[in-house]
Amino acid sequence: MNPLDPLSADEIARAVAIFDHEGLIARVVLDEPTKEELARDTVERRAAITFVPGPGTGLLEALVSLTDEYVLSVEHVPDARPALLFEDSINAIVAVMENADFIAAVKRRGIDDMSKVQLDPWPAGTFGIPHEEGRRITRVIAFLRDNPTDNGYGRPIEGVVVIVDMGRGEVLEVQDHGVTPIPVDPGSYLAQDHEPRTGLKPLEITQPEGPSFTIDGHRIDWQGWSLHVSMDPYEGLVLHTISYAGRSILHRASISEMVVPYGDPGPLHGWKNAFDAGEWGLGRMVNSLELGCDCLGEICYLDAVFSDEHGNPQVHKNAVCIHEEDYGILWKHWDMQGGTTEVRRSRRLVVSSISTVGNYEYGFYWYLYLDGTIQLEVKLTGIMSTMAAVDTPSHASMVAPGLAAPYHQHLFCARLDLDVDGGHNEVYEVDVLPDPGSSDHSFLPHATRLESEQGARRIVDPAKSRTWKIVNPDVRNALGEPVAYKLVPGSTPTLLADPSSSVGRRAAFATRNLWVTPYEPNEIRAAGGYPNQSAGGDGLPQWTSADRSLVGTDIVLWHTFGVTHIPRPEDWPVMPVEYAGFSLVPVGFFDRNPALDLPPPECKEHT
After folding, report:
1. Active site residue: 360, 407, 485, 530, which one?
2. Residues 229, 320: contact at Cβ < 8 Å?
3. Catalytic residue selected from 31, 150, 264, 276
4. 260-264, 303-307, 570-574, 599-603, range with the lowest pLDDT
5. Fold for domain 9-77?
6. Is residue 2 a contact partner of residue 30, using CB atoms and an 8 Å limit?
7. pTM for the predicted model, two decimal places
8. CA-to-CA distance for 310 and 16, rounded, in angstroms?
9. Is 70 a catalytic residue?
10. What mean pLDDT do residues 353-358 have?
């Protein structure tokens, strides 16, 4: 077994039995060995358990040795709340459905059949209201489904927000801000409700000799690449020990946190600031993928195993999809003088998963290319959070008659523990600027080393073609230059909320596109371990306030990227995919184009 393999079903059951406490369990995961531990001949196998002892606040964090079968430590974390528990969410729905004030509010809108009401519990945020003190709370909003397969988000029951104590299953307050007509059109996206277009001929992807990659447990090898893949209940897809031809590049890569802040200032939607990783869990919400729909080609899958809230192992089938894709031309040149043409086709290894968090879907696609490039692409789809409206709201777009969708952002923070040819790396910010000492059309790259944490809080600047280069000063290429990779950002926003606002304090990681910290194995989550109802300031702002040196050490990059979504009618009733992401590109890591040895494709005459 690889020391980084996720816990098996048997190990989860054993860890829970060894800890032996009554209550709910928020998570049971591998306590990942540190880099120092991985260098040893034997590595202790440990489980980390987050335990919820009662209906209020406060957690226990237990560390269990599976090697020696005893509890190593138990730490009490006061005032913390876990991510929203599924059992808590069900309790909240039951409590709201039976509440007389809510039933009366729904009847005021002409709804007598409660079986047609859809309830969505949301993370409540932190706004200083009395209900927050000492409780695990949620805000519940409602939608109308005349039929079970209706798109509930097409018919929001506007004006009603219910605050519920999740742990105790107690309705604390029913807010009714006034009746707005419920939209008539259910907004169906089902195939049966749309005339299918014609003329699309079959498009088949085949590999008669099978795929070019091999899988051994959770390890994948492909064309010089080697990596280890697992699934975390909160971070979702995690890649470990990525190397090329035996040379290390990344020790660990994941989405450490993400936030979806809404731009509507009103009481019905202004509190919506969901942390879809830390408050729900990208891994807990992972889909079981299907051949021909989610993945196309010669596919292999990996399952994920998580604990439920009573400590029972649960297998999520086909949680990770692995396959190859043709990606067009990798390189080409036609030599007019010599009369030769050389072309090679690009191919990439795809490691992907898809998570459904309420109304939204997020697809996470890690790509490894034949030229040494690593790319993360997030595909955003699903259904927008909606509101009923008579007139166009000030902070939302009309997307259908009587229906609007608020302006919002999706901001992801990738944690990238880079080990470029070893653990000693430094980071340079590279801007391309005009050369004032030369002609009026010349320009040069200017590299500035980021020497401490506070100076490494940076933002994207497309006007300067800004990238960040991760250099190993101890390893040189054939030209005598230090080997490096560069982080190439996409066009990406930062958090638009005021830094002093509730979400600004809690999602401070999203105020910058880049943070750099020294490697610390316990610094994993950009907004801290427990963002649910947190006061803010945890995670990156707290760690980097120490202003630790980034020179002569092992460093970790944190890259915030995403989209600002101004909804459009074409996004309704289900969104075409919107893309966000970044690339890690070799810069002097190789002595020349590493894809020169690819065999030429078989060219055929067009008939």
Report:
1. 360
2. yes
3. 276
4. 599-603
5. Nuclear Transport Factor 2; Chain: A, (3.10.450)
6. no
7. 0.97
8. 9
9. no
10. 96
